[in-house]
Each structure stands twice: as structure tokens, then as C-alpha cells.
Amino acid sequence: MLFFLILTISSSVTESVTFEITHQWSYINFTWESSIVYAEAIKSRQYIPEHVAMTGIKFYRSRWYIALPKFRPGVPVTLAYISANESQTNPLLTPYPDWKSNTDPTCEGVKAVQSFEIDRNGVLWVLDGFRLTPATTCPTKLICYDLKTHRRIRSFTFPKTIGLRRGGFFNDIVVDDSGYVYITDASFIDPGLIVFSVRENRAWKFRDGSMFPQMRAANFVVDDMVFTQLGTINGIALTPRGRNPRMLLYCSLVGFSVFGISTEILKREDLLSSGDWRANVTYLGDKQAQGDGMAMDELGNLYYGLLPLYGVGKWKVLGGIPPEILYQNRSTMIWPDSFAFDNQGYTYVLADSIHKFADSNVRLVLNDKIQFRIFKFFTGTKSYLF
């Protein structure tokens, strides 16, 4: 049996951390192949500007890579990038790896991406597993690109027993350099934690009650909207390299509690034949509020969004240090979602108002109001990958 520290939560607010907006968008547009193609996309409603949302962000070699899931019709691109030195407001996104891959009508293309990770070797691990809308009926996939050559180097199709073609929601991903990848499936139908073995080129899925919503956390308010969806397992983080056994942390969108499980347990597909592995799921404590994405740095600090508090928290979960609120802003930190790190000691968070795009009852209007913001703040650390 593996034992980890359980912390009773109290929290404080830190005033000394400065958050700066690096990029922001009122709507998302692209570097189209020509003005004729652009005009046709508008006319045919292949592109509906107010329907395009961004969720995942990662930084690599002076580029921001961005995921654009297809919550609404009219989203022509699902994976893109911008140069870090682009203009601050409404910079155009370039499809990655190209237009063809994003618009390929067959299942060979990149169909609907919610998130991704970039490992230490410059490999982009893409979760092509957003299957909540009719945008595609293609199977869920894990696609890898070498960011040095921009070539696809791996594509794995998940069996339907792991990732649903209709109802699958591959939400977030972390990469373990021992040869495994861990993925949260936030499906309302079949939520769980997916393990992919790089060496064996196969996957399996762990399912547990800790991966379901907590009703005491339901119906919270963000930006004057009551969020009623019962979101399942969502945010995921991996403890740093060199600290064995490593631990995988996760939390439901509708939930306060953070849980952890040793990666040594997750690597053993044979444990799925019985429920004994569930004894290794550890309750680590509660966050101050409901949150979406989270990420861990090289020192074991967990960063996470606080949705109804319009803030970002920090917590050394396994270090006995109480959590703190680093930043709050009711006007700009609306739905803090994805986190990223650079190599200069900065951590980034994307606030994306995604609750509006996910609710089909919300009428989206094209105007000058900023919808998406990338913030940076100095931590002096790199990601868990280093």
C-alpha cells in the first residue's frame, strides 16, 4: 500500500503576484489561403466567427499552440498556432500542421481537439477526442507531431470501449517520460482515466466514483450564469520527475476534492480485472472552489483555476503547505482553464469563457468584447516535464 499526505484545507490570498495579459481576442480568425476561400467560408457558414472558442494552450520555441474544440458549428480549424511576438489583440491563428489536415473530410484528419501536451523532446501529443457534438463521428485518436519537422509520427485510434465516438470527451493529458500518457475522459456517459502505453501501443481505462461530479459543488455561478452541467473528471496533473513513485492528481469539474493515485498502479492493466486498485485512490483535500484545468511545476506546486472566484490558486499538495489564491479579477479572469509554462520562469493561464460556448442555449454575438485572454505570471519554475 502506498501512503501520501492528506492535507486539511485552509487558504490565503497572495497579493504580490503580478498577472499580465500577453494576448487577447474578441473573436478568432485565421490566416486563410486566400480572400476568396475566406469569403466562401463566411457565405457557407463553414466559418462562424462568434462560434470559435479556444481551450488548450502550450508554448514551444516562440510559438503558442492552441486547441479549438467544436462546441458549435462553423469552426473550420481545431488545432492552430501563433507566434509569441504577434500583436496582443486578435492575432490571426494559423492552422496546424496545415489547412488540409484540419479540413480533411476523412477520419485521417484532425477532427475536434480539446487539449494537448508538448513533451521535453518537442513532440506534440494531440487529444483528438472531443465528441460531444455532431461535428464528427470519427473515432477518438491520439496524434503525435514532431514539432522540429512538423511531421506526424504517431496516430493511435482508441477502441469504442475506451473512447466513445458519440459522447467521448478527452479533456486533458499529461506525459510520463517512462513511456506512458494519462488522459481524462470527461464524458457524461463513461467518465474515466485513460492510460496509453507508448511501447505497447495500447490503452486501458480506469473508472471510479471519485471521477464523477460532487453534488455539493453543483450549480455554481460564473459571469452571472448558473452552470448546471454535471461535469465529471477534468483537470489532471502529474508530480515531477525524479520523485518516485510519481502520483497522478485529478479533480472533477463539478467538485472540490482533489484525488491522487500512484502511476505504478495505473501502469498495471491487469489490475482492472478486479476492483482492488481502488483502495489506492487517495483523497488529498479540497480546493477553494470548482475548477477546470490544472498543472504542476517542477517543484510540485499545483496551479489551478477557481471558476466562481474568478481566480487562480496554488497548492503544494504533497508538501503540507496550505493552498493560496494567487490572483482574482472579476472582469478578466472568466473561466481560467488551460495552463502552460515557458523556459524563462513564467507560467501562463488561458481564461476562455468556455461555459458560454458549451451551453447551446446561450446566443453568441460577434462584438468587440474580449472573450479570451492569456495571462502570464512569474513563478521561476518550469513544468513537471523537466
TrEMBL record:
Keyword Membrane: no
Cellular compartment(s): Secreted
Primary site of residence: secreted
Signal peptide: 1-16
CC annotations in GO: extracellular region
Entry keywords, A to Z: Secreted, Signal
PANTHER family reported in the protein's UniProt record: PROTEIN YELLOW-LIKE PROTEIN (PTHR10009:SF18), PROTEIN YELLOW-RELATED (PTHR10009)
Stated family: Belongs to the major royal jelly protein family.
Name by which UniProt lists this protein: Protein yellow-like Protein
Species name: Tribolium castaneum (Red flour beetle)
